[in-house]
UniProtKB/TrEMBL annotation:
This is Cytochrome b5 heme-binding domain-containing protein. Pathway: Lipid metabolism. PROSITE patterns: CYTOCHROME_B5_1, CYTOCHROME_B5_2. SMART domains: Cyt-b5 (SM01117). Belongs to the fatty acid desaturase type 1 family. It comes from the Eukaryota. Keywords: Heme, Iron, Lipid metabolism, Membrane, Metal-binding, Oxidoreductase, Transmembrane, Transmembrane helix. GO terms for molecular function: heme binding; metal ion binding; oxidoreductase activity, acting on paired donors, with oxidation of a pair of donors resulting in the reduction of molecular oxygen to two molecules of water. GO terms for cellular component: membrane. It is a multi-pass membrane protein. It is found in: Membrane. One of its GO terms (biological process) is lipid metabolic process. It comes from Geranomyces variabilis. The lineage of its organism: Eukaryota, Fungi, Fungi incertae sedis, Chytridiomycota, Chytridiomycota incertae sedis.
Length: 512
């Protein structure tokens, strides 16, 4: 899937404004599509033609194999290679769609102005059917036609779903919602700082720590929205909001989050590509990790080594404990990104934000009376954000990690790899609205305060398209994740026992 080196098996057709397709030569040069009024002479046709150029799927695959990043949108091929270094979410997001029809992904993750103004700058040619398609077997043709029919039907249903949600006004942001949350953040910070500065007992300090953790958790939800350009829908404004909430207030790198999170949205739950499920040696959500996988995100092999063999059998027991320390890991990942990411354009702003955060946090902790109190405050405040980490993992760890190939429709993949978590409406504020991860993955630009309202539309779509829409109660979802962790752990333990038994048998035979 990464930098795809094979042709996508979809029988694409030329655009309707190209009435005839001529053979493309073997040198991967484009030829023009003759106009309807041209004579039978191909040379004369070419000289008169002013139509768009064409390219076949075979040519797309060859050029992708040679290192170019070509993507398909609405039966047109775009060369995204010059834009890779400039993409806000990093070049991997684009590379994962190389050689693929990325229509649904582009529509879902980008505002209209990007599609209408920025994308046309990279137009390469219209997409045409391969010339030698007729030479394939009848069974192959039938399979391709069926795959194309399924994808077209799914896309049509997905577009109807998108129109219903847009017509209902659910893509629009209610700024009063974010205004209310700003008040909430101010209250939490006031209690946290006041407890440190004016507290006289240990429980004053611990309440302060809990409210600081609540502030970090809640503000992270808004930083997430800003990272998706889902608050003001103006990229510069949302980016600055994300920097303030993420870096200056939370000590987390917005740039690192974008690079990781955007890839996660494209290749959700893919063992080799999705960094959100690559947590060796601490966690393994699939037995396939035991053989080791190559991570295209970290650009290295994730080896199932001795540490993994010791820890994974017990992962279901320490799962929540490790998540409690998740914020410390995010600090490390954020600093690593801003200090080492090549050519990152907002490096200085992010370093300033992270430095400011650790300065004010150090000053606040220093105001506590004893080192024991300071240590307890740091751990309680940071571990109070555990529910954020639980929720992030909850929607994916128990879901499918199978790779169904490039032909799987985007909405089908999102519903297969993601679950929603059901809760009473009055708890939406606590979960940040992002307990509806399946809906969020289908429509990342829908503001989270509207995700609950999308549920009936998504249920109707899933029934129409023949997909399963997974929604479980919070306790049930945690139980499913725990069972997956336990099952993988038990499998690793069993393999260790077998290996030990075999080793003992060999030793016994040698002794005889």
């Amino acid at each position: 899937m990464f930098a795809h080196d094979g042709a996508q098996p979809i029988a694409a057709t030329a655009a309707t404004d190209s009435p005839k397709v001529i053979r493309v030569d073997s040198k991967l040069q484009f030829q023009d599509v003759p106009s309807a009024s041209s004579s039978s002479s191909s040379d004369e046709s070419l000289s008169r033609s002013r139509s768009a150029k064409i390219i076949t799927m075979r040519m797309v695959a060859q050029r992708v194999a040679n290192g170019e990043t070509l993507i398909i949108y609405e039966n047109k091929v775009y060369n995204a290679t010059p834009f890779l270094k400039c993409h806000p979410g990093g070049e991997l997001v684009v590379k994962h769609m190389a050689g693929c029809d990325a229509t649904d992904e582009i529509n879902g993750l980008h505002p209209r102005w990007v599609i209408e103004e920025r994308l046309p700058r990279f137009l390469l040619a219209n997409l045409a059917a391969d010339d030698d398609a007729s030479s394939s077997s009848s069974e192959g043709e039938a399979a391709e036609e069926e795959a194309l029919r399924v994808k077209q039907n799914t896309r049509a249903a997905y577009r109807r779903l998108e129109k219903k949600i847009r017509d209902a006004g659910l893509f629009e942001t209610n700024l009063w919602y974010y205004g209310a949350h700003l008040v909430q953040y101010a209250v939490f910070v006031t209690i946290a700082v006041g407890g440190v500065c004016y507290g006289t007992s240990w429980w004053h300090y611990m309440i302060s720590a809990v409210f600081m953790g609540a502030f970090w958790q809640q503000s992270a939800f808004a930083a997430h929205d800003a990272g998706h350009n889902g608050i003001t829908h103006i990229r510069e404004w949302d980016e600055n909001i994300g920097l303030i909430l993420g870096n200056f207030c939370g000590g987390l790198s917005l740039g690192w989050w974008k690079k990781s999170h955007y890839v996660h949205h494209i290749v959700t739950n893919h063992l080799e590509h999705d960094p959100d499920i690559q947590h060796l040696p601490f966690f393994a959500v699939s037995k396939r990790f035991i053989k080791g996988v190559y991570s295209t995100y970290y650009n290295k092999y994730l080896v199932f080594g001795n540490v993994s063999k010791v820890m994974i059998p017990f992962q279901h027991l320490y799962y929540y404990l490790i998540l409690g320390f998740g914020r410390f890991l995010l600090y490390f990942l954020g600093w690593s990104f801003v200090l080492t990411e090549p050519g990152y354009r907002r490096r200085k702003a992010e370093i300033a934000g992270l430095t400011f955060y650790f300065c004010w946090l150090t000053a606040l902790v220093s105001a506590l009376p004893t080192w024991q109190t300071r240590t307890a405050w740091v751990f309680v405040s940071h571990m109070s954000t555990i529910f954020l980490h639980i929720q992030i993992n909850l929607s994916h760890f128990a879901m499918s990690t199978e790779d169904l190939g490039k032909d799987e429709p985007f909405p089908a993949k999102m519903l297969r790899t993601t679950m929603d978590v059901d809760c009473p409406w009055w708890l939406d504020w606590f979960h940040g609205g992002l307990q509806y991860q399946a809906i969020h993955h289908l429509f990342p630009r829908v503001p989270r305060h509207n995700l609950r309202k999308c549920i009936p539309f998504v249920r109707e779509f899933a029934q129409e398209a023949g997909f399963t829409y997974h929604m479980y109660k919070f306790g049930t979802a945690n139980g499913q994740v725990w069972n997956v962790m336990k099952e993988v752990g038990e499998h690793v333990a069993l393999l260790a026992k077998v290996a030990h038994a075999e080793a003992s048998g060999h030793s016994h035979q040698k002794s005889l």
